[in-house]
Amino acid sequence: MPxxxxxxxxxxxxxxxxxxxxxxxxxxxxxNDSGYCWTLERAGIYGxxxxxxxxxxxxxxxxxxxxxxxxxxxLAVDIEYDTKxxxxxxxxxxxxxxxxxxxxxxxxxxxxxxxxxxxRYSKEVSMTALRRTVRLRGAPMRPLDLNVMCDQCNxxxxxxxxxxxxxxxxxxxxxxxxxxxx
Length: 182
Known about the structure:
Structural class: alpha+beta
């Protein structure tokens, strides 16, 4: 809390929810909870009393964290944050996240798992993709019955030229239809 001699500390809120591994910069909150940005000039600066008053909102851990303004200014560099757009931003990398997570206002309720290039995917995400079932017209989709091997030359249909095989298959179909008519 501020005293008479000491001004109130200021914080910048980082969005883990809106920062993806493909982003070059960490997503920051804009002033008055009004959207997101990448550049430090457009980022909102929040007072310590406001952040502590609504700690679960500004510093939940799973979607947002509140970090003091001083380390953010120290870590910010001029980078290309969007296609041909440059600005003073926080680079989205392991080194930056490690320092920012160490300087969070309070330990959040939920663990912080930022996404940046090189971080491993969480097990929960990869396992849900494996368990997912595709549904067609409300029912689970049956496995596809695809012939991967050519019935004429016994080689993979994905490799090589099978025009001769196709002509042989067409000739057999013509003969089969002629026999069925008789």
